[in-house]
Amino acid sequence: MTGFINTEIQFLVLCLSTMFTLVNPLGITPIFVVMTERFSKTDRVQIAKKGIITGTITLVVFTFLGSIIFNLYGITIEAFQIMGGILFFRSGLRMLEAQVGRSRSTESEREEIKDADEIAISPIGVPLITGPGAITGVMLLSGQTPSNYSIGTLLIAVLITMTVFYYILRAGDGLGKRIGVTGMRVIQRIMGLILMVIAVQFVINGIETIINRL
Known about the structure:
It is a single chain. By secondary structure, this protein is an all-alpha fold. It has one domain (2-213). The chain contains 9 helices and no strands. The protein has helices spanning 2-23, 25-35, 41-73, 77-97, 107-110, 116-129, 132-142, 150-171, 174-213. The relative contact order is 0.21.
């Protein structure tokens, strides 16, 4: 019994360290802040919550059915990387060119709130919060479970990781208040550029892997 507990604890530590590294909440939070800065505080909390729920469901599904889904539809991780890169690039370009301020003074700006549900699912839920790396990670970990009960340990690690991620996103909401509108404009463009670079790297990684298999 003691050996079983020790094994599960070690696997839990492995899963947690792997998941935190792959989802990178501290690196993603500034991007989340500038992507949602046009929304109110309440809206940003809801976007964070829906994004985390979307990401969690995605990870749980791929924990159990990842290999089956990929094989059934002939999908590869490389294709997912390239798709994620395209979504990232589009979002980064919008961030780089955005001129929208915090106050929604026009009707069109006020109607932007309708986009909250859409961006919470994509690109924030997938692939920003849950990207190809995290999906690949849970698929690999699910194939390395030391016992029949370890899949539960992996799910616990996923839930812990995403719960902590949610509270980090909420804490990041105060970033905009501290640095002001001008600071947000600067960070928005920097993060937009970084997001575009990440997007290009995703596409390069996917293409390189495909070429290396030829």
